[in-house]
Design goal:
Largest sheet: none
Shape: rod-shaped
Strand content: under 5%
Keywords: Coiled coil
Order of helices and strands: H
Distance between the termini: 129 Å
Radius of gyration: 38 Å
Number of strands: 0
Structural class: mainly alpha
Number of helices: 1
Oligomer: single chain
Length: about 90
């Protein structure tokens, strides 16, 4: 084989190899884009779940505050009733 033929063969081999590398990179890019889309969708789903959970926590905390106020009110009424009963019993 003469030098120009060897150079031509080497160039052809390099072009083939570069083409294969480009296809491989394109495949990897497509795979990464797909994974990115999947992760983005998953992230959005998790954000919705967290927002729903946070809202529910706030609702439960407010419910707990209302119940605590109700308990305090009932305890004060009970204490008042106990005082009245004590006064009535001491007469």
């Amino acid at each position: 084989m003469d030098i120009p033929t060897k150079i031509g063969s080497a160039i052809t081999a390099l072009q083939t190899h570069v083409g294969a590398l480009q296809r491989s990179l394109e495949d990897q890019i497509n795979k990464l884009r797909s994974e990115k889309s999947h992760l983005l969708a998953q992230s959005e789903s998790f954000a919705e779940i967290v927002a729903t959970r946070d809202c529910r926590i706030e609702e439960l905390e407010e419910q707990n505050r209302r119940q605590a106020r109700r308990i305090e009110f009932l305890e004060s009424r009970q204490a008042e009733a106990d005082r009245r009963e004590s006064v009535a019993n001491s007469m």
